[in-house]
Fold Cation diffusion facilitator family transporter.
Amino acid sequence: MAHIHDHSGHDHGGGHVHGSTDQKRVLIAACLTAGFMVAEALGGLFTGSLALLADAGHMLADAIALGLAWYAFHLAGRPATGQLTYGFGRVKTLVAYTNGIAIFVIALWIVYEAWDRLLTPAPVLGGPMLVVAILGLLVNIGSFLVLHGGDRDNLNMRGAILHVLGDLLGSAAAIVAALVILATGWTPIDPILSVLVSLLILSTAWSLMRAAAHVLLEGVPPSLDRDLIAGDIQATVQGVREVHHMHIWSLDGSSSMATLHACLNEGVDAHQAVSAIKKRLASEHGISHATVEPEFGRCADDGDDHHHEHEHDAAAHHGHYH
């Protein structure tokens, strides 16, 4: 137990500084977004612009999402408990997944609203709309620059950047729509551009949700191949005859973990073999925490539950995660 405690302590310390700066970045972006969201919503209602209202809708979801992202960073710093033995690191991934769903819902609402506007066009005040849209763009650029310096390998941070990027595109579309309305008076451009922005956001939200779902389903990290790693251990670690029941997953999208059974040749020092496997996993494959069960002869799981375990392992073996 002491070994596990020491190891996890070491792991947390490495990313602590980065995590705290990311937390501040997300909080600044949340405050900027929430502040301007109110102004943009009022501007949308005053000018009759769906593009502005759509962008304000994005910004509302984003202010909430960025607030949740900040809270996730706050929680992730807490130590593990008796009930949550892995700690709170995965809260960030859960928030990233929830963010993806929120973006999806808002984008679909905008598409629905735009269709209604195309069927029954409404008057739009181009001048005030342009002013609000330009201010919105400046605020979003500020938020994006604040977040851009953060850790982009972190799913929570990626979710936050994605939200602000969506807002930025929304503001840019509103500016284009306002210019077209001022120049030609053609109001259907307003709902058309709001739909284009929504479709773009839907595709990026889908990729974020897939990445977060992969972590939540404990899939093998995309950069790793379970079977290749098992083969590498068998080939390079002396005394290892076979590796089976191997599982690789990520806690939060950045730190990887593994469990495996190592079948050893007779006369091999089990402690030395386990130590060599752990070192190999850490140095060559970036797996920072591994639980290795050494075996001589028969596998300990080949008892009454052998059939169930074999089925489970076969499913894992055939279900490659890429």
